[in-house]
Amino acid sequence: MTAHRTLSLDEARRVWRSRQRLDGGSRDLAAVVSAVGWVPVPVVATPLLALRARGAITLRAELDAALFTQRTLELTPGPRGMLWLVPTEEAPWARAFAVADHATREGRLSAACGLTSGDLRGARDALRAALETPVEPGRLRERLPSSALRPLGEAGRRAGCDTLAGMVLRGMWAGGEVTREPVEPRVDRAPCRYLLDPRPRVVPAAAEAVDVVAPRWIAAHGPTTLKSFSLAFGIATGRAAQAVRGAKLERVHVEGLHGEFLAPAGFEVPAPGAEPTVDFLPFRDPLVDANPTLAGLCPSSLVKDLRLRDLGYRPLVLVDGAVVASWSYAPDDTVRVAWPLDHDVSLEPRVREAAASLARFIASEAPSPTLHTTALPRRIPALYGALGADL
After folding, report:
1. Shortest CA distance to 222 belongs to which of 118, 151, 142, 296?
2. Which residues lie below 8 Å from residue 349, measured CB to CB, with a gap of 6+?
3. Cα(118)–Cα(104) distance, rounded to whole angstroms?
4. 213: helix, coil or strand?
5. Across-strand partners of 328?
6. For the CA atoms of the chain, what is the radius of gyration?
7. How far apart are CA 161 and CA 27, in angstroms?
8. Which end of the chain, C or N, has fewer beta carbons within 10 A?
9. Of 379, 365, 377, which is closest to residue 187 (Cα–Cα)?
């Protein structure tokens, strides 16, 4: 690694914004999703609004086409037990983390419930036979023998796998053997159906995936810390350090922030723009997901007010890369901005203009965006990540 380089906080924010493609410039969805280090999908609205914030889409149908027609993007299980929007060619690297996570879960449940390799193999064979034709989740149970529906008791309920078939189905999904898609090719539509995925899948080992993903993730989020990378992928900091060893990285000091930051060697700092930039980011946007403390993005005095209990942070408004407010979509089809008591009122006209544009997009392309409205649930609703929980 090269020697330290010092950035002001304003410079660091311009780099973060540029690295996260919030300056726009590309309509290649796979390239944008790859460049930002993949997009978390806690709810369907997140990838729609994250891609819109980056100027990559203006219509929901563009994301639908990439997912279900062109197949250049996938909704894929990945790090931290979450669902991710990833380029199809990068999906095996994301799945490697899901496979490793499921192997741990399966081993724990097998020991707790006295399951044998024959039990697992029998359930998998039963599921493959049941999925010879696509089936909606509620009807899959009807196609399975009672042996596959063996209950796993309290240990299974805690792990989100009530039955043997539910646990095995989850593993088949993690490895890409089974997929779940909306019956209608729209990312925001129910019902869904399970089907055997006809595409061949080769999932690498998680250890290999960490080494491949590490420099790409730091390129997407740098300047960032090894701790942030380790949290993003649920690995030890020492393993994170090993993964970036030999990568062409640069040590960076950011004024006002503690710790050593890393960024791709020779990275450029964008010049200040003539006008302030305004970004409306969704719940769990990639920029926010990679920075769980909002360090450098937001004064520490505001962080507590921006949290949604244990779910994460509210959808955020950034001006020139700094958090200035949160936002929510109201029942009257407007986007409401919640300013802190002490804020720069000169920013309000530009933010109101951007809020009105976002409101029009949500009304036509992402109606009822869960976790982005004024009425918030107590928990993140089940999405594709709950696959197998209904068996």
Report:
1. 296
2. none
3. 18
4. helix
5. 336
6. 22
7. 39
8. N
9. 365
